[in-house]
């Protein structure tokens, strides 16, 4: 591995391990954070809006004279957005909230009201800002309200989850079928889509209604959001024949951002949401860098893919701009929807590009497999070729266990070529190959080394078994010679070995074959 790539790999591994360690430490603290208790279900709903500041002018007052409605499970639900508040019923303090380290920005606080006639009682919520959402009613009615309010985010989350799973299954299926190494492009896209699904579901308050801790939701949402650019960058890097230093640097910056944010969260110096502007800036830099890359691709072999991805990035950019405006200026009501729509359009464009790209890689892989098979197969005899034999020696130089190497050579092939023509010689070679295959195809690998020489490699074979197979080969040749004008004759030499190298066994078997050929020539001369 070149030194630059080696250093790059070490840096990426170090930052990844550091980021993962930070995540597990913070997730451990999130597990220990208190879970907001939730009462059981029932209907009716009432929203309390601010009526003005308190007497000292410090706090905003949310106050409501409760009606004579009968509630089976009276509940006050407050979405605090990390704003401290106090809840009073007829001046009696019911709950006081001070934001904690792992509080989710959209966390719903459930305050159980006394199970009695509440008509005529005054419910008051005091907070230093107007960012609270205060609802009163039966728990079942509140559940229905929050489900309806978050229906769009739940749909997007489920859609991304389904897409991520399908893309992952497509990647696994294609990898199993074709073994294309570059199918990691689909894997990165699958991870990106699943992270988007996790972020949307965790950043939405609706999951608190299935008793998921707000602290765990907060940690998962923040880490999912900050990790998304990592897989987007890896997606593009996996498509490139030559790695980009700029993308590698930005990848490290995102990993470093994860490490720093995790460290500051653990030390209590700053919370994840307070460091989001830095993550947003890094995301904008990432998008601009990827746009620059795509523009350069417009004049390359990826020009069609670049146009499609640019359209997806354009849609994502517009939606992200609206999302940032909503997050920082418009009250954080629809930023999830904006980001979800943009991410969905981008994912659709990336999926279309990925499928086309992976299809091309599969075609290349299939072609390479076909060419490899052609190179490893002797076209005349359909035996394995000399190239296949040399590749076997290179990859697996030792024959395990008790093994045998047999070398065979056709006698008098030159005489056949000279007297009857090369077509007759080719037919003689094919006949020899057919006889060899009929006996040894199920026992080992058969190779044509070129011309009239053949090699057979047998593993886990005793010498008696080899002798029996050679006798069957002689019998097969004898039967074929009954219908031939020029008889087929093979010189045979073999050697046995225990965990021996193929090269050594081949040399010994080849020497034995030439000795057998000489003996056959002498015997023919004597006749």
Protein topology:
Blueprint: H1 3-32, E1 45-48, E2 50-53, E3 60-65, E4 74-79, E5 85-89, E6 92-97, E7 108-112, E8 122-127, E9 133-138, H2 139-149, H3 151-178, H4 184-203, H5 214-239, H6 245-267, H7 276-297, H8 303-328, H9 335-375, H10 386-395, E10 398-410, H11 413-420, H12 422-440, E11 444-450, E12 453-459, H13 463-481, E13 490-501, H14 502-526
Antiparallel strand pairs: 1-9, 2-3, 3-8, 4-7, 4-9, 5-6, 5-8, 10-12, 10-13, 11-12
Q: If you had to describe this structure to a student in words, what would you say it looks like?
A:
This protein is of the alpha+beta class and 527 residues long. The protein folds into three domains: 251 residues, Rhopdopsin 7-helix transmembrane proteins (Up-down Bundle); 94 residues, Sandwich (Jelly Rolls), CATH 2.60.120.260; 141 residues, Reverse transcriptase/Diguanylate cyclase domain (Alpha-Beta Plaits). 58% of the residues lie in helices and 17% in strands. The chain is built from 14 helices and 13 strands. A five-stranded antiparallel beta sheet has the order 2-3-8-5-6, with no helix packed on it. It is elongated. The protein starts with a helix and ends with a helix. The N terminus is likely disordered.
């Amino acid at each position: 591995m070149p030194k630059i790539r080696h250093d790059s790999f070490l840096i990426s591994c170090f930052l990844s391990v550091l980021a993962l360690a930070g995540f597990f430490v913070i997730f451990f603290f999130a597990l220990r954070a208190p879970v907001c208790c939730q009462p059981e279900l029932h209907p009716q709903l009432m929203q309390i809006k601010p009526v003005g500041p308190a007497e000292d002018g410090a706090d905003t007052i949310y106050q409501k004279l409760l009606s004579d409605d009968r509630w089976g499970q009276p509940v006050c639900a407050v979405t605090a957005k990390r704003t401290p508040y106090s809840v009073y019923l007829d001046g009696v303090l019911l709950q006081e909230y001070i934001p904690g380290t792992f509080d989710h920005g959209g966390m719903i606080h459930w305050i159980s009201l006394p199970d009695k006639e509440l008509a005529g009682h005054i419910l008051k919520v005091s907070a230093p800002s107007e960012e609270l959402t205060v609802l009163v009613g039966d728990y079942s009615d509140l559940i229905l309200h929050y489900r309806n309010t978050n229906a769009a985010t739940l749909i997007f989350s489920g859609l991304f989850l389904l897409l991520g799973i399908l893309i992952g299954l497509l990647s696994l299926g294609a990898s199993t079928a074709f073994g294309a190494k570059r199918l990691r492009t689909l894997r990165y896209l699958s991870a990106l889509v699943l992270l988007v699904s996790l972020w949307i579901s965790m950043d939405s308050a609706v999951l608190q209604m299935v008793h998921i801790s707000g602290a765990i939701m907060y940690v998962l949402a923040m880490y999912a959001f900050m990790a998304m650019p990592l897989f987007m960058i890896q997606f593009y890097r996996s498509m490139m024949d030559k790695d980009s230093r700029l993308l590698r640097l930005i990848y490290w910056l995102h990993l470093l951002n994860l490490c720093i944010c995790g460290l500051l969260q653990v030390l209590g110096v700053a919370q994840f949401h307070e460091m989001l502007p830095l993550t947003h800036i890094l995301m904008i830099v990432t998008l601009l860098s990827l746009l620059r890359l795509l523009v350069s691709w417009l004049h390359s072999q990826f020009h069609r893919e670049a146009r499609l991805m640019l359209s997806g990035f354009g849609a994502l950019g517009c939606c992200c701009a609206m999302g940032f405006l909503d997050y920082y200026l418009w009250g954080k009501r629809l930023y999830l929807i904006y980001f979800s729509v943009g991410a969905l359009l981008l994912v659709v464009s990336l999926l279309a590009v990925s499928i086309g790209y992976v299809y091309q890689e599969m075609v290349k892989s299939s072609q390479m497999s076909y060419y490899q098979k052609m190179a490893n197969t002797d076209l005349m005899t359909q035996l394995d070729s000399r190239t296949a034999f040399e590749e076997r020696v290179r990859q697996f130089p030792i024959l395990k266990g008790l093994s045998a190497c047999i070398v065979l050579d056709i006698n008098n092939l030159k005489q056949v070529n000279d007297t009857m023509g090369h077509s007759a010689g080719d037919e003689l070679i094919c006949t020899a190959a057919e006889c060899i295959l009929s006996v040894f195809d199920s026992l080992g690998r058969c190779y044509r080394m070129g011309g009239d020489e053949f090699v057979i490699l047998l593993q886990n074979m005793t010498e008696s078994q080899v002798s029996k197979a050679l006798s069957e080969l002689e019998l097969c040749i004898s039967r074929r010679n009954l219908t031939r004008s020029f008889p087929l004759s093979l010189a045979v030499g073999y050697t046995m070995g225990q965990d021996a190298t193929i090269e050594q066994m081949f040399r010994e078997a080849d020497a034995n074959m030439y000795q057998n050929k000489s003996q056959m020539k002498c015997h023919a001369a004597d006749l």
